[in-house]
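Here comes an entry:

___
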Amino acid sequence: MSAWSRALRTRVAMVCIAALMLTAAFASGTDSEAMWTDGKAGSGTFTALQLGGVQNFVCTAGVWSAATVNWARPTGTPGGVVSYQVTVRRAGKTETTTQAATTFTYRRPALNFDDVTLTVQPVIEQWTGPTRTMILEAAPLVGMRCP
């Protein structure tokens, strides 16, 4: 092979490589979902659930050993979705129950004259509202006394 034909082959190869590189550089793929991007800013507001406290939190003292506490569901909440955690603290012991009713009757054990702290907190699934607390006083010979 002569030097001239080698030089010609080298030049042809270089032109082919250059043409291939130009084609690859300027080629675009077909439009598809995978190639589509669109950058746009967005803004908006987000309102979280705000659960209020129970309303009309009142107590009615019973004779001898009972007191009944009543309340209304938090303002703006539909019926049937709110439950209530009722916590009773007496003599260093705490008992918590969850109920759907808006009334709770505390019955004092016989010959026990400890005051009772009653706390009610509304609950909707994982959201909780503020607590309301009431102290029920044990009154000897009378029963329970409401504040």
About this structure: The domain at 55-145 is CATH 2.60.40.10 (Immunoglobulin-like). Residues 62 and 99 are 22 Å apart (CA to CA).
